[in-house]
Amino acid sequence: MLSRTADDLYWMSRYLERAENLARTLDVSYSLSLMPQGGLGDGLDELAMPLLISGTMNEYLKRHGQLNADRILHFFALDAENPASLYNCLSAARSSAHAVRGRITADMWENINATWLEMRSIAEQGLGHYGVSRFCEWVKERSHLFRGATVGTIMRSDAYHFIRLGTFIERADNTLRLLDARYKLLGEDSEDHDDRSARAYYQWSALLRALSSFEAFAELYRGSPRARKVAELLLLRADVPRSLSSCLEEMQKILAGMPGDNGRPAQRLVAELDARVRYTVIDEVFEHGLHDWIIESIDQMHRLGNAIHSAYLEAA
Amino acid sequence: MSRSFYDEMYDANGECRPHYQEFARWLAETPPDILAQRRREADLLFHRAGITFTLYGDKQGTERLIPFDTIPRSIPASEWRMVEAGCIQRVKALNLFLADLYHEQRILKAGIIPPEQVLANDCYQMAMQGLDLYRDIYAHIAGVDLVRDGDGTYYVLEDNLRTPSGVSYMLEDRKMMMRLFPELFAAQRIAPINHYPNLLLETLKSASPLDNPCVVVLTPGRYNSAYFEHAFLAREMGVELVEGADMFVRDDKVYMRTTAGAVQVDVIYRRLDDGFLDPLAFSADSVLGVPGLLSAYRSGNVTLANAIGTGVADDKSVYPFVPDMIRFYLSEEPILSNVPTWQCRKPDELSHVLAHLPELVVKETQGSGGYGMLVGPAASSKEIEAFRARLKANPAAYIAQPTLSLSTCPTFVENGIAPRHIDLRPFVLSGQETRLVPGGLTRVALREGSLVVNSSQGGGTKDTWIVEDCEC
């Protein structure tokens, strides 16, 4: 397959996955912001979290000066001027799909094209009119549909593998960032008895729901979510589809099956990362310091992304 | 001036022509709200599928839909056989002409075409002189534009031998009609066209001496107005859609960059004009092509479809000679007529043109897309006088033709159904044999009275049916 084609397929699915994750992030923050805030005011710091996670806080402040609920929501979701907005993620995904429409099935193309056409009409209506939760649901649903169309229709060749690679690397990165942000907010004292406080309960539950892992947590741990257990679930459990371990396992399998010799560095790196996660336990992670461990992992994801790029996406 | 139009569906007495009777019956029986609803459905489907084109000069790069009309253009099979034979004959002669022109130039030596008409032409490519092409084929894919005059006679308006487009609309229009109105296809025998991509791939493969050559489609990129078509054809043929930057030349061989390393390319179906193919040989500031491609081509290591330098044969100044080419190379009489053309470079023809400017269409020989031309009946006397001065100053740059009346076909318009002018572009493939799928792209001028069918000027398309004659 052409390197440029592989690049577009990879970024098509990365951007779509990113859009889905942004919607998940926004959804949880929006619902938490509506809850009574323990003396912290109007829920603005909750709404600001998506900006912190996506690294767009400075850009927002430069443009709007101060935090304002409606402006944050618009900036994050629909602002065409914000390169990291959900709107622009879908635009980029659709644009990449357009560039490779010869290599994806008609079902996939029509799905992503229809998503983009509807996105534009939602942007015209505005979020206030459409509804924040409804919008987040819509983005997730469109992403699910596209994934379904992909899995159900495309041939299991390179194209499929690069699409999957883009999905998993983006998803792993997102899970790491979301976990880190919640952990920082709840602080180290989340390990003491207050951990069972209502605030911690809602925070961790919201995170689990954002990552569609609430049911898995309930089934596996049968108890209130606590930092250590949530971290174990989201980092180390290979049977939870949005966990770091699960994403690494998928990527490791995909890269190992790639033809050609130019992928050796990427193949070795992903195998190392997979082993690092597979053969550790959560106590070891906390001994190291959860925050530091996550930051290192985010950095490793970045290195893996670069290795994939130089191996396949810009190959000569 | 009174002009009578040939209507494809109704004869001069308003009677429905036999090959449209089945459709007319269905149209009369189907409630208008169902038809309106299906038309909306068609728009939605085209939009969802992203079957669009982009207008140049539109900074937004807005993707537009080409309007699709649900009333088909229908041609009886017996009539089509004549058109088909005429197109094949014409393209064969044009390929023979190109091979001759870039080798012995017998036709010039025989005095049939004045040498300056072709050798001084901008589209004549010196680099092709003496180069032997496999099967001697230059225009593997040709689009022949046909119109019908008042009495229904078919005329060739122009030959497109460079990178003719529109075939994807021909195929998508058919797909749409079959999806919206399957009952029409059950009721009569309409010749299928969906195998075009398959024929195209066969043609491209047979353009290379190799057994199983690696074929690619070369596109200028996603901002090109015909990008949809490039992607469509690559997908339908199952070959790579490449841009110039995806390929490189090493040791006079062409390779594409893939995830598994470099892969050699044997046949390039290029949808890029000559001038952009190779920055080393042609336009140096173009980033669309592949440096070194011409050298690889001249070494015989890669096939280009179409060949470089075909533009010299579809130039308007060469067009008047095509009937002579058919006689010269094939020893046959032309099946399809040329539109009568006055060559202004000839003094007696010039004086005729000058005397009849208000009735004629005058075109620049090097122009295309409707630029630099005078439509006499539609021009003011001031415009005509201004044009007269330009014509006198440089007669050789112009040809003149009578204003054709173009046949009409019933078409859905804002308030009901009304006749609109149409043309027809069949696509002729030349490989081991010269052939075409039954039909072509019918373009329709949607504005009342307009003769301009170009999509950039508000033209639409119709499905084109070749209907087996009923035995009844």
Automatic annotation (TrEMBL), chain A:
It comes from the Bacteria. InterPro entries: ATP-dep_Glu-Cys_Ligase-2, DUF403. Signal peptide: none annotated. Residues 1-313 form the DUF403 domain. This is Putative alpha-E superfamily protein. The lineage of its organism: Bacteria, Pseudomonadati, Pseudomonadota, Gammaproteobacteria, Pseudomonadales.
UniProtKB/TrEMBL annotation, chain B:
This is Putative circularly permuted ATP-grasp superfamily protein. Residues 72-445 form the Circularly permuted ATP-grasp type domain. The lineage of its organism: Bacteria, Pseudomonadati, Pseudomonadota, Gammaproteobacteria, Pseudomonadales. It comes from Azomonas macrocytogenes (Azotobacter macrocytogenes). InterPro entries: ATP-dep_Glu-Cys_Ligase-2 (IPR051680), CP_ATPgrasp_2 (IPR025841), UCP005522 (IPR016450). Signal peptide: none annotated. It holds the Pfam family CP_ATPgrasp_2.
